[in-house]
Specification:
710 residues; alpha+beta; Aldehyde Oxidoreductase, domain 4; 3 domains; 14 helices; disordered N terminus
């Protein structure tokens, strides 16, 4: 019998919400303390997105305790539930819904025990800030009085019933971020701030190019007590004083001899390389229909080079080896997945590795945080008993972190004389969009391929299609079209490591789709808003698009020389949050985005202020990406390894952003972290066309690429 078909998983246990299904023990998720505190232990981590505040709100709501009582414990492999990776805008859906059910179940268990002890029916017992009250107001007990009873040493029950939306008082209201006070007042909160007794500082000496092999290493004096650690082509220095490690790294770099070769396609030839490299096909969506001869046909390609995460703070980790256990402090987005790769690279059993999360600079994707953890572990193993701290340089962060893969999308669309869509064909080419740890036979960590006994560099993969995919993410247009053919091609050669960056393939796919929709509207002499609305069957997509247009005054916008307006809409991954954007740009010595209006629908909004921050932050990052950012390289190495060569948006260039949420408290919550990027990029591209009459096909939207389009 197919139990899953009946709604029961193959393990025979009823499915529980989110990550609770695979982490069923309640005491893994939360603990009550006799002093009146509650500790929750999500497996998701804080990346600057404010998720820990939202999870605390959900927990306080279901437990009926004040938010101030909730303490959120940072994820660590010994204590936390394994929630894989904090990614995909899934934290509220996976961790939040797990905690909602777990806390509702904890409340049910405690109330039932109080009912048994007092004879007051469970349905008549109220909970007020952790106290259990009889109908006459008598206090019958509290969480704190029974904190030592181990009532949560059990699996979660499917019988728990979270509160209905109408009864919620804590979620749905903005709450101050729990993580911000330390950051505002400069407390030692980041992994970069961690200092342990006996700590050593290390720096890695990187090869001058991709694929280079370390040959001769000349001896020579080093500052202080600095010494060299070498394992194959992995080369590092370690010292008691950080400045000595910095100086030693510079000296050792001058003494190292490397065998180099060409391994990268030329920057100028990257687009043609994407078309010609070996690839495997991916069928995304297809349907056939008889359509008449089209009145309008558009065929266009959209190209984006590699992108860097460009974290403001560089990657950092601390590791300590005591001869039996490797303990690591890291800002990885997936501590359990990182541990899985460390077991392979270090050839240690999982129980010998402890990984603890500490916050670092946000990256919204797979940057160097996992790589630097292995760097630190390798040096720590050579220096047992001493914590070893490694901090990457700016050149390492911009030059050696995994990149979002270069991507090419081709669209061919047909419409009748009135602009009604008849046929849509779309193809995309790129490397896989996930090279995260823990998902394959070999470790994906940078240093693993440089050891004396090296591991091969695995090809990046695409996340499962059910989760949105990678290259195919948002490749299916949300509009009504009778005939559809959407395909993708994952490249089987990978010149540089490719992995996840906020939005994955959605950024290029939404840009391509929304640009073509604008072009068809222009050919049919139809307003771009009206053109979209009559092709949208999804009422929620229509609502956010109409709201963004209202916010921007779309119907009364005035045409000005050198300025333009554009709009776009998408539902992230086709299953996530909805977002529509209107952009106003100014074409001066280059393109500036001056204003953005964003309307989003995230279902139930747990922390409205946090959601607005995420939507606004995503839009600003997207503006920087499409107007300025591109990884540059020659045939051997990445050359955009400094801010001067990889510029990002400055504060003076940040657009004015207005965000509105379409409220749906009864709907399931949807993640907000990535929904605004694709629509923002597409809206900016359409605004450029409105201002200049030029359709930009090459990213970034710089004067050079605009001239190329002309």
């Amino acid at each position: 019998m197919n139990l899953a078909f009946k709604g029961i998983p193959e393990d025979g246990k009823p499915r529980l919400p989110g990550s609770l299904h695979v982490n069923r023990r309640l005491d893994r998720w939360l603990t009550f303390h006799a002093d009146g505190r509650v500790t929750i232990r999500p497996g998701k981590v804080e990346l600057g997105q404010g998720i820990l505040t939202a999870l605390a709100q959900i927990s306080a709501e279901e437990l009926d305790v004040a938010l101030a009582r909730i303490r959120v414990q940072a994820a660590a492999t010994p204590e936390s539930p394994d929630e894989a990776v904090t990614s995909g805008s899934l934290s509220v859906q996976e961790s939040g819904m797990a905690l909602r059910h777990a806390c509702a179940d904890a409340r049910r268990i405690f109330v039932s025990v109080v009912a048994q002890r007092t004879g007051v029916p469970a349905e008549d017992i109220a909970v007020r800030d952790g106290d259990f009250l009889a109908p006459d107001g008598r206090v019958l007990g509290s969480y704190w009085a029974m904190a030592e009873a181990e009532l949560l040493a059990t699996e979660a029950s499917p019988e728990a019933t979270p509160k209905p939306a109408a009864d919620r008082q804590v979620v749905g209201r903005s709450a101050p971020r729990l993580d911000l006070p330390d950051k505002v007042f400069g407390a030692a909160r980041y992994v970069h701030d961690l200092r342990l007794p006996g700590m050593l500082h290390a720096r890695v000496v990187r090869p001058p190019s991709r694929g280079a092999v370390l040959g001769e290493l000349r001896d020579g004096p080093l500052p202080g007590d600095a010494r060299v650690h070498r394992d194959g082509s992995f080369l590092a220095v370690v010292a008691a004083q950080e400045h000595h490690a910095e100086q030693a790294a510079e000296r050792v770099a001058r003494r190292a001899g490397w065998d180099e070769r060409d391994t990268l396609p030329d920057d100028a030839a990257l687009e043609s390389w994407l078309r010609s490299a070996p690839s495997e096909p991916i069928e995304v969506a297809s349907r056939e229909a008889e359509t008449p001869a089209p009145a309008h046909r558009i065929k266009a390609s959209f190209y984006r080079p590699f992108l860097a995460h460009a974290s403001i703070g560089t990657s950092c980790a601390v590791a300590r080896w005591d001869g039996a256990t490797m303990e690591i402090w890291t800002h990885s987005q997936g501590i359990f997945n990182l541990r899985a790769d460390l077991t392979k690279a270090l050839r240690l059993p999982a129980e010998a590795i402890v990984v603890r999360h500490m916050e670092g600079a946000g990256c919204y994707g797979h940057n160097g945080a996992d790589d630097v953890a292995l760097d630190a572990a390798l040096v720590a193993r050579a220096n047992p008993g001493h914590p070893v701290r490694i901090l990457w340089s700016r050149a390492e962060e911009l030059g050696w972190s995994p990149f979002s893969p270069a991507m090419l999308v081709e669209v061919e669309a047909e419409a009748d004389a009135g602009g009604t869509l008849q046929r849509w064909s779309q193809q995309g080419w790129s490397n896989g969009h996930s090279g995260r740890p823990g998902r394959g036979k070999d470790p994906t960590l940078l240093a693993a391929s440089m050891l004396a006994e090296p591991f091969p560099v695995p090809l990046s993969i695409n996340p499962p299609a059910a989760g949105g995919g990678g290259i195919q993410r948002n490749a299916v247009p949300p509009y009504r079209v009778p005939a559809l053919d959407v395909r993708a091609h994952r490249l089987l050669e990978m010149p540089v490591r490719a992995s996840a960056l906020r939005g994955l393939g959605a950024l290029v796919n939404v840009w391509a789709i929304e640009s073509v929709m604008d072009e068809i509207a222009t050919l049919a002499a139809e307003d771009p808003l009206a053109h979209r609305l009559r092709h949208l069957d999804d009422a929620r997509a229509r609502d956010v698009l109409s709201e963004a247009a209202r916010m921007a005054g779309w119907a009364t916008r005035e045409k000005q020389e050198g300025r333009g307006f554009g709009l776009a809409v998408s539902r992230y991954k086709g299953t996530g949050a909805y977002c529509a954007a209107v952009a106003e740009i100014e074409a001066a010595e280059r393109i500036f985005c001056r204003r953005l209006w964003l309307a989003c629908d995230v279902g139930e909004a747990i922390n409205p202020d946090g959601i607005a921050n995420q939507v606004e932050g995503g839009a600003i990052q997207a503006t920087s990406m499409c107007l300025m950012e591109a990884v540059r390289h020659d045939t051997r190495t990445v050359t955009s390894d400094a801010w001067e060569r990889y510029p990002i948006l400055r504060f003076s260039e940040v657009p004015q952003v207005e965000v509105t949420m379409v409220s749906r408290p009864e709907a399931p919550p949807l993640g907000a972290g990535e929904c605004s990027l694709g629509p923002t990029i597409a809206a900016i591209a359409n605004a450029i066309a409105d201002a200049l009459g030029v359709r930009v096909r090459h990213w970034p939207f710089t004067p050079d690429n605009l001239s190329r389009a002309m």
